[in-house]
Every structure is written in structure tokens, then in C-alpha cells.
Design a protein that fits this description.
single chain, 350 residues, alpha+beta, Beta-Lactamase, Hypothetical protein af1432, five-stranded antiparallel beta sheet, HD_domain, HDIG_dom, HD_GYP_dom
Length: 350
């Protein structure tokens, strides 16, 4: 599985169970792993971890839960080394014997207040190759990003003031809703790297989430058309920033969100819409959303076209830096993508 596809799957998975399902198929094919499981403390004060697996019995999961708790979620174990019966003792050894698993590769998971362990289980002693260990590390990265995205969605859904608008958009076009979540996620990654304050990040997150809300006013036969749009239809689509602005402008506390909704299709060279802004006339948060919006659009598959490979998208972003996109933001965003997709030979993230 290509790393770029793996990264895209992180963003598109809607639940940890879905991510585990993807990883399970991948691990069985690429690593020869019989089963994969995740044990996760998701909330402050939670004592017993939530367990996730595919095709693993409850009895085996209970024994593995005992193992991860008593090894402190593999926090003290050296990643990439097998954990076998020979290394275990006491209750941990008894649990491994009951599970009928001879070898575990455990990877500590940590994001914010959430932490846990991702386990690759084998029924016989197994020594993974360097390439297989790299795939395990990539799987660990995939899972951490899945957890991050799902936590992010939970935060966003707490914005009750916009629940009705967002639910209306969900009914009208679920693809656009998924796209909005993705753009908000990418935007927050970039904003965090730029060192934005917590207040700015919250504004960025909300503005990115609502940037396409004006598509509520676009006729269904255009918004959900399964073929390429005609020029006339595209001109209708181009009105969604104006529509979004009008929908939101009278709501309380939206003054910081409105620029992202109205101007996310403006361009650095002044050839964007609806107001033809250029350069520094376009606020920083808007420039961030514009970049994230384009990236997700190019890497998403629609009925009428396939997604571009991430490397092709990279070339597009570099080509249009200083024209469509802020040329200072593009290399920073690309570095973030590299960090998500590649792992150095020493097993550490680049």
C-alpha cells in the first residue's frame, strides 16, 4: 500500500473501528500478522481501556488487555522488539498463555490526553524484517492520526450554534461535509505548525469547517451532478462564498469566521473570487484554508474524476505557490505532509 494512500485513509476513516479494519487487512498481507488490536484510554479519568479489534474473540482481548495494562501500554518497552513468553512473567505470562499467542509487537500510542497500545500478534515466535518494522511504524502513525482526527471531530460537533446549518448541508451533500471536516483538520495542522495561538486555532478550525456552508444554496442538480460542470453551472457554484457569507453574517460571534467563508477562493495573484483580493489583502487564516481546501479537493475522488496522487498534488502546489497560494505556506504544508507519509530508516518520524 502506498504511503500517500495510507495517509489519505487516515483522514477519511470515520471511526477507530474502521481504521483497525484497514490496518488488519494491511498487516495480514504485508506483515503476516494474525491479528491487530488497539487498547486506548480516551478520556481523562478513564481506568479500563477501550478495546478495538477485528476477528478476535472477547476472551483473547481480555487477556491482551491484562498484558497492556501491566506493561504500562508498552511505554517502557523498546519499540520494534518482540515481546514473547520468555520475557513475560507472572500474570502477564499467564495471560499470554491463555491467549495462545506466542509473540507480540507493541507500540505505544499517545495523542493529547489519549494514550494506549497498538499490538501486532503472532501465534508463533516471529522476527520481523526491517521493512516489516517500518510498516508497523507506519501503522502506528496511521492510528495516532486517526485518533487525532476523531477527537477533532468530537470537538467540532460541540459548536452547537452551527449545528442546524451543518446538518442541513449533511443532508444535501455528505461529500461536502466530509470535505469540510478534512479542510478543518489540515488547516489546524498547518496553523499549529505556524504557532498560532489557541484562540486563532479555534477561529481557524471553525472557519475551515464552515467555509463551504454556502453550498446549501446551490441547486441539487448542480451540486451533485455526476459529470463535469458546464461553464454556466460552474458560475453558479462560484457564488457559494457569497451565499455562505449571507447565511452567517447575522449570527452572533461570526466576525472572525466570515473572511474564511467569503474569501477562501481568493488568490495571491488577484485572480480569485468573489472580490479579487491579492497578496496581504487576504488574511493569513484565509490563506491557510485556501491551501488546505485545494489539497483535499485534489486528493479526493469524485464520480467524474479520480484523485491525484499526492506527489502530483505536491507538484501542483509548488507550481502555483506565489500565484494561487501563499509561497511561504506551501513549503511548510508540504513538510507536514512529508512527516505524515515518510519514516526514516531508524524508525523515527522525519
Amino acid at each position: 500500500m502506498q504511503n500517500s494512500l495510507f495517509f489519505k485513509n487516515v483522514i477519511n476513516a470515520d471511526s477507530i473501528f474502521e481504521s483497525i479494519g484497514q490496518l488488519s487487512d494491511f498487516a495480514k498481507t504485508a506483515i503476516g500478522c494474525e491479528s491487530i488490536s488497539l487498547f486506548l484510554i480516551e478520556e481523562p479519568g478513564q481506568i479500563t481501556p477501550t478495546s478495538y479489534s477485528v476477528n478476535m474473540s472477547t476472551a483473547v482481548m481480555e487477556e491482551l488487555q491484562e498484558v497492556v495494562i501491566r506493561t504500562d501500554y508498552f511505554a517502557g518497552e523498546m519499540e520494534g522488539t518482540p515481546f514473547t513468553l520468555a520475557q513475560a512473567n507472572g500474570i502477564v505470562k499467564a495471560s499470554l498463555l491463555k491467549s495462545k499467542l506466542a509473540c507480540l509487537y507493541g507500540f505505544h500510542i499517545q495523542h493529547g490526553h489519549a494514550y494506549g497500545a497498538l499490538l501486532f500478534a503472532f501465534q508463533s515466535p516471529t522476527l520481523l524484517t526491517e521493512e516489516q518494522l517500518q510498516l508497523c511504524k507506519l501503522s502506528e502513525l496511521h492510528m495516532e492520526q486517526s485518533i487525532r482526527k476523531i477527537q477533532f471531530r468530537k470537538q467540532v460537533l460541540k459548536q452547537q450554534a452551527y449545528e442546524t446549518l451543518f446538518n442541513t448541508l449533511r443532508v444535501k451533500d455528505s461529500f461536502t461535509v466530509d470535505h469540510c471536516y478534512n479542510v478543518a483538520f489540515y488547516s489546524t495542522l498547518l496553523g499549529g505548525r505556524l504557532g498560532l495561538s489557541e484562540t486563532e486555532l479555534e477561529r481557524l478550525k471553525l472557519g475551515a469547517l464552515l467555509h463551504d456552508v454556502g453550498k446549501i444554496a446551490i441547486p441539487d442538480h448542480i451540486l451533485r451532478k455526476p459529470d463535469r460542470l458546464t461553464e454556466a453551472e460552474f458560475n453558479v457554484i462560484r457564488q457559494h462564498p457569497d451565499y455562505g457569507y449571507e447565511l452567517l453574517k447575522d449570527l452572533p460571534g461570526v466576525e472572525h469566521v466570515l473572511p474564511m467563508v467569503r474569501w477562501h477562493h481568493e488568490r495571491i495573484d488577484g485572480r480569485g473570487y468573489p472580490d479579487g483580493l491579492s497578496g496581504d489583502e487576504i488574511p493569513l487564516l484565509v490563506r491557510i484554508v485556501s491551501l488546505a481546501d485545494a489539497f483535499d479537493a485534489m486528493t479526493s475522488t469524485r464520480v467524474y474524476r479520480n484523485s491525484l496522487h499526492v506527489h502530483e498534488v505536491r507538484e501542483q502546489l509548488q507550481t502555483h505557490a506565489g500565484k494561487q497560494f501563499d509561497d511561504k505556506l506551501v513549503p511548510i504544508f508540504l513538510k507536514i505532509l512529508d512527516e505524515q507519509m515518510y519514516i526514516r530508516k531508524d524508525g523515527m518520524r522525519s
